[in-house]
What we know:
The structure is a homodimer of 406-residue chains. Helices cover 34% and strands 26% of the residues of chain A. Chain A has helices at residues 18-33, 48-59, 65-89, 121-128, 154-165, 199-207, 215-223, 277-287, 316-330, 357-367, 391-401; strands at residues 4-10, 36-42, 94-97, 104-106, 115-118, 132-136, 139-141, 147-149, 170-175, 196-198, 228-232, 240-243, 256-260, 263-272, 292-297, 304-312, 335-338, 341-347, 374-378, 381-387. With 406 residues, the first copy, chain A, is α/β, with parallel strands linked by helices. In chain A, the strands form 5 sheets. Chain A has an 8-stranded mixed β-sheet with strand order 3-6-2-1-9-11-12-10, sandwiched between helices. A 4-stranded antiparallel β-sheet of chain A has the order 13-18-20-19, sandwiched between helices. Chain A has a 4-stranded antiparallel β-sheet with strand order 15-16-14-17, with helices on one face. Chain A starts with a strand and ends in a 5-residue tail after the last helix. At the A-B interface, α1, α2 and α3 of A face α1, α2 and α3 of B.
Amino acid sequence: MHKGLVVQKYGGSSVANVERIQNVAKRVVGYRKKGYDLVVVVSALGDTTDELIELASKITNEPSEREMDMLLSTGEQISVSLLAMAIHKLGYEAISFTGAQVGIITDKSHTRARIIKINADKIRRALKEGKIVIVAGFQGVTLDQDITTLGRGGSDLTAVALAKELKADECEIYTDVEGIYTTDPRIEPKAKKIQKITYDEMLEMASLGAQVMQARSIEVAKKFDVPLHVRSSFSDNNGTMIIKEVKVMEGVLLSGVTLNRHEAKVTICDVPDKPGVAAKIFKNLSEGGVSVDMIVQNVSHTRKTDLSFTVAKTELVKALKIVKRVSRNIGAGEVIEDQDIARVSVVGVGMKSHPGVAATMFGTMAEHKINIEMISTSDISISCIIQKKFAEVAVKALHNKFGLSK
Amino acid sequence: MHKGLVVQKYGGSSVANVERIQNVAKRVVGYRKKGYDLVVVVSALGDTTDELIELASKITNEPSEREMDMLLSTGEQISVSLLAMAIHKLGYEAISFTGAQVGIITDKSHTRARIIKINADKIRRALKEGKIVIVAGFQGVTLDQDITTLGRGGSDLTAVALAKELKADECEIYTDVEGIYTTDPRIEPKAKKIQKITYDEMLEMASLGAQVMQARSIEVAKKFDVPLHVRSSFSDNNGTMIIKEVKVMEGVLLSGVTLNRHEAKVTICDVPDKPGVAAKIFKNLSEGGVSVDMIVQNVSHTRKTDLSFTVAKTELVKALKIVKRVSRNIGAGEVIEDQDIARVSVVGVGMKSHPGVAATMFGTMAEHKINIEMISTSDISISCIIQKKFAEVAVKALHNKFGLSK
């Protein structure tokens, strides 16, 4: 009895040790028994990736990105082979593949490659032979056969891309939490699990710091309308469905409050206020492979102005190097860094039709005497950069103020 | 100044930790500075392979061989990327490749694959670009892109095969000992380093228990006349040259004494003494993938005889299963195993022209009251199976008797 094709993705914590791998194998076989075809995408075991990064850092602090990909891709190769063995042990047929083997072809941007196409014939053939297919997440291969990785959280992308390519009936993202919450429950214990959320809201939440799913994979899911089910590999409870549209009840303003403590702020002082200067700065950053997040420049009443932007802390050294060079070229002043910042954001499609969210947000900050250093808004989110020490207070206050704790 | 191409192979102990990897990088760069092109074959870090095997054994005691290869091949992938980074750190260009990437094409015999051909274009291109090429040892890939491994010690084979394919001027095998010794120095401290040894002698010594190099790789080196230099990665001393012919001085009878404690003896009792029976037994073992080593069958004066053979301990379970089944079919009796045996051998091309080596060997055993359970001879070696507890006494006695301690 053929029930359809399910793509499942298990994150690192779901396969952190032998016992958990066996647990995943049981879950996979459970679906098989019900008549589903299965493609299972797996991340590296627990902290393997971090351990490999640590190992490389003992050798060099500027590792070649090609060699990093070569190194890190071993993590998933270990977990797929072990999961295949665990499924065999339960008496079911399974076969593991690396990203290269299943033809996940990417561009040459090592450590953050983009998938160009997937030659899924090998998977289709294995499925036809009745096998459970296990695919290494996070990795691909260039047309020159160089191994690439898709960036942090790239296994989600592997799962979504495969679900799209194979026209899967469902794409389940297994993690160590029960789904998406209105905010991080470790900060605000009153946080609630969200039943359904739109791609757009999830996208904002992911890019604003909710670490459950990688933003890029939600973009892809949205683009190809792949419904996602984010759930826990440790329970049978339903998690959070990420879908195209959610019927919003009146009064539901926000989906959640997010926090990102992994960014740093860079300020270039006394930037000459003339056309093309900002372009020059951000062109150089972009060419140097630095992703800039928020940018703030004040209107200037003199000939000079200050320009601030945020970047991931991991890219701060690279960013400072570039910015200091460009700053000298354009005749700007000092470059100041600040690593003690946090970004607090509120997200919700509801705010489109409800003005006043921004005012309430800023008012809440003021009530708690929290200074707002930068502000950025989108259609369905508002973000504030504040000092890191106020981060948790701000999250709790906003979660409460917008009625998410109820 | 182009000096020629050197293929170097570094074993697991030479790259057991970050410090040792950096040491290897320095050595490689040292050759580069002298003007050599370099292809460097690397094994997995220290005990990585054993740790991965241990991990798999926690999941299943009969892992799929395809999945084992998938798992184990990650070990070398980690070491090649780290070595490339360490060389970059010293300011030199290097690029790492997996077995699959450099086109080491093998047959489909997972865990003990044979190299069919090498498409070394990628290596040639990288060398032409002035890069030091780092290749993952021990692994290859089938025409279907399934990852294979070449069996224990397979990195030696990778090095020798690449040296042949690339017409290298030298092939250096780096290990944690200074070369080949007349016997294991841990057993007999008077053991001496051998300056030069022939392929044939080395082959006997390797297959008889000297674990410095894998036998198959010496066969390949012999076949294509690739001179090998076995030496230590921890010193600059010359090691042992393995070459076609060594001018033997008068009186030099033996090259060394070897010991193998990794075999078990299987005896099939009361085998019907008629044509085709032995063939049936060993055909079944061979089809089951069991490599049999020594075989002894006594002339029988009745209609039944006992037949003994030895196998690697790792294959004992498989061998017993097959032998017990066949034994029932052919109407033989009980099957007895003995794991407490050792094989002691003397090796030397000199014995071809000097009769009496066997007599001296057996006499030495008798002097020490050691019972010989099986005997096997070749052109340049004589082996005895004895009880394991006498192994070290036998090695020391033979090493002394044949004048190797001088």
